[in-house]
Write a structure and sequence with these properties.
alpha+beta, Uridine Diphospho-n-acetylenolpyruvylglucosamine Reductase, domain 2, Uridine Diphospho-n-acetylenolpyruvylglucosamine Reductase, domain 3, Alpha-Beta Plaits, 5 domains, 4-stranded mixed sheet, 4-stranded antiparallel sheet, 17 strands, globular
């Protein structure tokens, strides 16, 4: 079927145009691969945080790259925008269509095959729709693991993780999603399939093209498959909870652990006492890790594979004893069992939910240079308190990555929706501070539609020009995930 790409002029023309487009899609996908039923689409039209709700012409679910290619070609011919979606677990509205109802929502969840795992090379090729937890289980079944995890592992997909360059709690040792991708396959804006799934240690044929698609949020092409790096399974681990007197002391403890434990140090998270108290009040499953209170707490995970498992316990105890002698911590406990280790981690993982239960908050996923993060927290937090009386400021998360989840909590008694009104001025203030410190307004969650205006305001004009040039080159019609990540010129001038 041939579709006209010229713009319809009347509502009747639009209706006929969309009907013809959906009929052509139906021929490609069949009943299983296409649905325009509003009830079936409803769960996928609102983002995970419930902040954005859109409409769509239909929900397309291709089974493979060839079907997706056919969809994209028809959409390009008809001028229909495409919004790709994985597990719909993103934090910035990056997979939610606008409210025009003119976009096609494309789910990649049916592309969920996992190829044979090469245990010698420690790598696997899998489809974009593979759930992260399923990938973990497949790797663990052969004595390996995929070294990236996060709270949404039960719904997040490989394609979504790649498209947002996801982070998580193991970035300190293994890097974010970009570091795990050895090869990639993607469908481009014209429907062509670019495939480079075979990993090469050395390849000097120009640009590393896969890097264009990692973190591009589906605005340049849609990832359909990837070859991913695996690592040896964990044979032994130690999880520690330490109380320290300041965020600077936490940083000093981090440096000590890096020197003494090297690559065995897998995670180093910080939690202020106020956040720990919120968790303890929120969930009955949580337990106080230490007897006393401490201004800051550090959650430390150290792991070993089979070759080094026998010495891990001694190395951790020696490093901890040296930290006590050097005055780097006030108190500490090593989890005595897996259950206690998981209880320590629960105190970290429940922080966002515990804060949400307390009331409205403005959440910021930011980063500055790793060595500057303690200074940022100590210097910027008082300025926020002075500028916005009555709020509370907490920062928690991945200190070793220079990435803190920096939340400003509403004054007690604030009405529902406070963060959508008063919170805007707070976020603008925080992002201006982060930019002045040479940091990023999005460390791991992406830009989506939530931060696109702030990106236009804070980003280097040269960087914005490069983003727009790449978008124009790869998606000249602007049909791939419009309104996400790349600020249009019409969104306002960049900050000088």
């Amino acid at each position: 079927m041939t579709l006209s790409s010229s713009a319809p002029h009347t509502s009747a023309d639009v209706c006929a145009h969309h009907t013809a487009f959906l009929a052509a899609l139906q021929q490609v996908l069949g009943p299983r691969g296409l649905s325009s039923d509003q009830d079936a689409m409803a769960p996928w039209l609102t983002d995970w945080r419930g902040r954005y709700t859109g409409r769509a012409l239909a929900l397309a679910s291709p089974a493979d790259a060839q079907e997706l290619s056919a969809i994209v070609k028809l959409a390009a011919q008809a001028g229909i925008p495409i919004v790709p979606q994985g597990g719909n677990s993103g934090m910035v509205g990056g997979a939610t269509p606008d409210d025009s109802g003119h976009s096609l929502l494309v789910s990649l969840r049916r592309m969920n095959s996992i190829g044979p795992i090469d245990t010698d090379a420690m790598q696997v090729t899998c489809g974009a729709g593979v759930i992260l937890q399923t990938l973990h289980e497949a790797a663990e079944a052969v004595g390996l693991r995929f070294p990236l995890t996060l709270g949404g592992k039960g719904s997040a997909t490989v394609g979504g993780l790649i498209s947002t360059n996801a982070g998580g709690t193991q970035v300190l040792r293994h890097g974010n999603m970009r570091a795990q991708v050895l090869g990639l396959e993607a469908v481009l804006a014209d429907g062509s399939i670019w495939s480079a799934l075979t990993p090469l240690k050395k390849d000097n044929r120009g640009f590393d093209l896969k890097q264009l698609f990692i973190g591009s949020e589906g605005t340049l092409g849609m990832v359909t498959a990837a070859t991913l790096a695996l690592v040896p399974g964990v044979a032994e681990r130690r999880v520690l909870w330490a109380g320290v007197e300041s965020i600077h002391a936490a940083r000093a403890l981090l440096l000590h652990c890096q020197r003494r434990l090297g690559s065995a140090l897998e995670g180093f998270e910080v939690i202020p006492q106020a956040s720990l108290e919120a968790v303890l009040a929120f969930t009955r499953k949580s337990r106080r890790p230490l007897e006393g209170d401490h201004a800051w707490n550090a959650l430390i995970e150290v792991v070993a594979d089979a070759d080094s498992a026998a010495t891990l316990g001694d190395r951790v105890e020696t490093a901890l004893a040296e930290a006590f002698e050097a005055g780097l911590l006030q108190d500490a406990a090593i989890a005595a069992s897996e259950a206690q280790a998981e209880a320590f981690w629960l105190n970290r993982e429940e922080v966002p939910m515990a804060e949400r239960a307390k009331g409205p908050a403005v959440q910021h996923d930011i980063s500055v240079a790793v060595e500057r993060m303690p200074d940022f927290i100590e210097q910027v937090s008082p300025r926020i308190l002075a500028r916005f009386p009555g709020v509370h400021v907490v920062g928690f998360g991945h200190l070793g990555d220079g990435n803190i989840h920096y939340h400003v909590i509403a004054p007690e008694g604030s009405p529902k929706g406070w963060e959508l009104h008063e919170g805007k001025a707070i976020s603008a203030f925080v992002y201006d501070e982060v930019t002045a410190w040479g940091g990023s307004i999005s460390a791991e969650h992406g830009i989506g539609q939530n931060k696109i205006a702030e990106l236009a305001h804070t980003a280097d004009p040269v960087a914005l020009a490069l983003l727009r040039a790449v978008k124009q080159a790869l998606d000249p019609l602007g049909l791939l995930n419009p309104g996400k990540l790349v600020p249009p010129l019409a969104s306002g001038p960049a900050k000088p």
